[in-house]
Design a protein that fits this description.
The structure holds 2 protein chains of 2 kinds. By secondary structure, chain A is α/β, with parallel strands linked by helices. Chain A has 8 helices and 10 strands. Chain A has one domain: P-loop containing nucleotide triphosphate hydrolases (Rossmann fold). In chain A, helix 4 crosses helix 5 and helix 5 packs parallel to helix 6. Chain B has 2 domains: 173 residues, no CATH class; 185 residues, no CATH class. Helices cover 53% and strands 12% of the residues of chain B. Chain B has a 9-stranded mixed sheet with strand order 5-6-4-7-3-2-8-1-9. Classes of the chains: A alpha/beta, B alpha+beta. Chains A and B meet through helix 1 and helix 2 of A and helix 1, helix 12, helix 13 and helix 15 of B.
């Protein structure tokens, strides 16, 4: 009781300007996410899902309002501070994996650790642990082109968790995968949530993927229109 | 250091582009090294000549105009000029003779040479006392002195033409209508920064031939007069005294140090240094543009990747540094091939063997090679600034587009 929420959005508005025209994307958004929650964000295209994800991850700033993650008001941080904050607190999982093609799986996973003061030996241990968690032991020396889509996404997840971040954000992590690979990735994310108590925010269009989350938020035209605790209801 | 794996992998990402960028830098630096080395060698050699206390008297109208052979004796009679005995004590036969010699350019072609070589009519009794850095074994010197149609050649000329002592060395005149039928009596050895491709023959052989076969046309010309002073302090006084003594003659002279004489040849081509610096600057600016375009293209292809790096916490400064280091490494590779490669190439291959009449020797000084390498680093840095800055400014949102 009285525990600080993992994420707190208070009166968040976000609008973009195209020439002289203001385009509102999020309007007066209020949201609280508890630590260890697995949150799915759904909504039609243009509803503001990705914009909301960007705000939570510290990639963008609200036009007005407060975005507080892990007790930090992101709007108050400088560019450099927020970059350092992201490196310690946020793990990113992208739809198209976004691995660096010239680096091996091991080197890709190691990239966020280069920003830390860990020794080479410690980095190696952390990378191996992360790859073991995602089931890619023995694939350390493979380049992304030598891996399947599902395996590439596993490497991306390993990269996201290698620094043991507070928050995992995933934007349609199964959007580019076949059903079987998608199921494996979702299983892995569920495992991260269940076993490692990670706070996860996932944007998805896929109701089956959303069913894996412990809570489902629906966005439409920049406003929250649904907040369902039993995500299983979505599939039905 | 921990980021170098990423930097080197990026360099190898598009091998053709990297190779072409490195090639463009190295080819331009190769040409720059040739020009800069030529200037540096001229300056180095000219400065080193000041150690020998030698003066050269030529016509005040220019070195192509004649200097009467009688002037040699006039100069020799003046105070302050060293004797052969003082310079080469082992030469007892000519020890009291003044170290003065005519030095008359012949410019003949040997066999099918495309360019005339450096052949000079000299006084065999004094020349090796004046040119003390040129070494000739005593038996070869004696054989040369004893044979009026004999000549001595430099070791590099002997090597280029596969010549040895006793071989005929016929020369076809390009200035004089008189051909020289010479026989090689000696092969001299001089330091690497001296002309080891000259042919020295008896001035008297040419002069007698001109008198005999051409009614004396063009005979009696010493060309220039080379002589060695006892010490440097005597040189200013001698210069004035010699030129004053011929001032009112039909052939006034200009006497100068050997260093000034060598510099005169560089200046004859014009303000070569300014020209080379201007060309060099243009090349550097072009290279900066070429490398900058290559780097900008490379970064444009990696916009999403840079956005991902920034998303996971790479700051602007780090992204900027990574791109700059990449640009500097590529450019430095071009510098290593272009500058150090040119140095190593011309350490092994003597460019002078191709154009001995124009360039008796050639090498790339270390200072020039290192300057070229430094220039490559600078080109890399400057060319990388704009692409690096643009990469550092990449918006994560824009870079990731629909991804996050």
């Amino acid at each position: 009781m009285g525990q600080e929420p993992a994420i707190a959005l208070r009166g968040v508005c976000k609008e973009y300007r195209r020439e002289q025209i203001k385009i509102p994307v999020l309007t007066d958004l209020k949201l609280t996410v508890d630590e260890g929650e697995f949150l799915a964000l759904m909504g039609p295209s243009g509803s503001g899902k990705t914009t909301l994800l960007n705000l939570l991850a510290g990639l963008d700033r609200p036009t007005t309002g407060e975005v507080v993650v892990h007790g930090q008001d992101l709007a108050q941080m400088s560019e450099g501070q927020i970059a350092r904050w992201r490196s310690r607190n946020v793990g990113f999982i992208f739809q198209l994996y976004n691995l660096i093609p010239v680096l091996t799986a091991f080197e890709n996973v190691e990239m966020p650790l280069l920003l830390t003061s860990l020794s080479k030996r410690q980095r190696r241990e952390n990378v191996r642990t992360a790859l073991r968690v995602v089931g890619l032991e023995g694939r350390e020396d493979h380049f992304p082109r030598q891996l399947s889509g599902g395996q590439e996404q596993r490497v991306a997840i390993a990269r996201a968790i290698v620094t043991d971040p507070y928050l995992l954000v995933a934007d349609e992590p199964t959007g580019d995968l076949d059903r079987q690979s998608a199921e494996e990735i979702l299983e892995l994310m569920e495992q991260l949530h269940r076993e490692f108590q990670k706070t996860i925010v996932m944007v998805t269009h896929d109701p089956i993927a959303a069913r894996r989350a412990s809570r489902l938020l629906k966005l439409d035209k920049g406003k929250l229109v649904g907040d369902v605790i039993q995500a299983q209801e979505v599939a039905s | 250091m921990k980021y170098l794996v990423y930097v080197f992998r990026n360099i190898r990402r598009n091998p053709v582009r990297t190779l072409l960028t490195v090639a463009s830098i190295s080819i331009c630096l190769f040409l720059m090294m040739l020009l800069l080395s030529y200037l540096t060698i001229n300056t180095e050699v000219a400065h080193s000549l000041s150690d020998y206390n030698r003066l050269i008297t030529m016509s005040s109208q220019g070195f192509t105009q004649p200097v009467p052979i009688a002037n040699v004796a006039t100069v020799a009679a003046m105070e302050g000029i060293a004797t052969v005995g003082e310079l080469t004590p082992e030469d007892k036969e000519h020890r009291d003779k003044k170290a003065v010699s005519p030095f008359s350019w012949y410019g003949g072609r040997y066999k099918d040479d495309s360019m005339p070589g450096s052949q000079f009519g000299i006084d065999p009794e004094t020349i090796f006392a004046i040119m003390v850095e040129m070494k000739l074994p005593p038996d070869q010197l004696k054989a040369f002195r004893d044979d009026k149609t004999g000549c001595v050649i430099g070791k590099k000329l002997a090597k280029d033409k596969n010549l040895k002592i006793g071989d005929p060395y016929p020369l076809k005149g390009t200035v004089y209508e008189f051909n020289l039928d010479l026989t090689i009596r000696g092969i001299y050895d001089a330091p690497e920064n001296r002309d080891n491709r000259m042919c020295l023959y008896h001035w008297a052989y040419l002069d007698e031939g001109l008198k005999r076969d051409f009614q004396g046309r063009a005979a009696g010309n010493a060309g220039t007069i080379y002589f060695k002073c006892k010490d440097a302090a005597a040189m200013p006084g001698l210069i004035k005294k010699i030129d004053d003594s011929f001032r009112n003659s039909s052939t006034p002279t200009k006497t100068q140090t050997e260093e000034a004489f060598a510099q005169m040849f560089s200046e004859m081509i014009g303000d070569l240094q300014t020209l080379i610096v201007a060309v060099g600057m243009a090349v550097v600016v072009s290279l900066i543009c070429v490398c900058g375009v290559a780097m900008a293209m490379s970064m444009r292809e990696r916009t999403t990747e840079v956005a991902v790096l920034k998303a996971i916490g790479f700051g602007r400064g780090l992204v900027l540094a990574l791109v700059l280091v990449e640009a500097v490494i590529v450019s430095t590779l071009g510098g290593v091939v272009g500058a150090l490669g040119t140095k190593l190439l011309f350490d092994q291959f003597d460019l002078g063997s191709l154009v001995p009449g124009f360039l008796p020797f050639f090498y790339v000084p270390w200072t020039t090679a290192l300057f070229g390498l430094g220039l490559a680093v600078l080109i890399g840095f400057v060319s990388g600034v704009l692409p690096a800055w643009l990469a550092a400014q990449t918006s994560v949102i824009q870079g990731l587009r629909k991804v996050v």
